[in-house]
Structures are given as C-alpha cells and as structure tokens.
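seq as requested:
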Amino acid sequence: MLGPRVWSSVRQGLSRALSSTVGGWASGEGRKVDISGVYPPVTTPFTATAEVDYGKLEENLHKLGTFPFRGAVGGVCALANVLGAQVCQLERLCLTGQWEDAQKLQHRLIEPNTAVTRRFGIPGLKKTMDWFGYYGGPCRAPLRELSADQEEALRLDFTSNGWL
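struct tokens:
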C-alpha cells in the first residue's frame, strides 16, 4: 500500500497525465469528469521498476467509460424488504451481462421502489410488508398509517407491475 505522501504525488502526476483525455470521454470535450463514488476504485498499475504505468491506467479508465450503467452509487433498498429475490435477480442479471433482461426487471421495480421510498415512505413499506406476509407492524409517531386512498394507490403500484 502506498503511503499518503507517495499517493499524493501519484495522484498529482496522474491528474496531469490524464487531464486532457479524461475530460472528453463521458462529458464532452474540455470538461473534467469526477468519477469518485460513481465507479469502483481503479487499481493503479505499476511497471517492473515501480513506476506508475500511465498508459495502462489510461486504458483501464477508458474501459470504465464504456460501462453501460453509470451513476448508481447506493440506495435506500427498502424494496428489498418485500421483493428481495427480485432485487437479487436484478444484480445477477447485471453481473452476467444480461442487460436487456435486467432493464426489463428494473423497469418493473421502479414504481414499487418509488412507492416504498419516496411516495409513501415507511408507512408504505410497512403496509407492503404486511401484504407479502412479513411483519410491517403499526407506524410509530409521528408517522401515520396510510389513508384508504393512499393504500389503494400503493396497491396499484405493485399490482400494475405484476407483484401482487
């Protein structure tokens, strides 16, 4: 592992070496791309003389720029509480390169995911868990149970995508 001082100088050298080429790959000519947090860390390749192999590093970065999915860094993952097998299937499809099937499954998961994270939040997640045979239980204050109209809208998000 590189010490902080060595890594700092490597980073500066890398920045100078790649500043002209990295900008053009994903975001248009002349703009720099901040890939921190979006792509997995890139292993720094070294030559036999312990020098950074900038050519190989540039090649690795270029390969990362061709990945079909960008920007998915993390998530709330509430949907996995009720459709865990399907969320895991989505990951398997991505890992095995079955992009069309992954996209179809992802599109079926979008509305239910939005419903239990943003639209209805914890009360929606608890109600959905009850529907799927898990224990969602009552909401604790200050949260309130869903109204009848909200519950129907939540049910529609799951039935229209084939999950209920």
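The chain has six helices and no strands.
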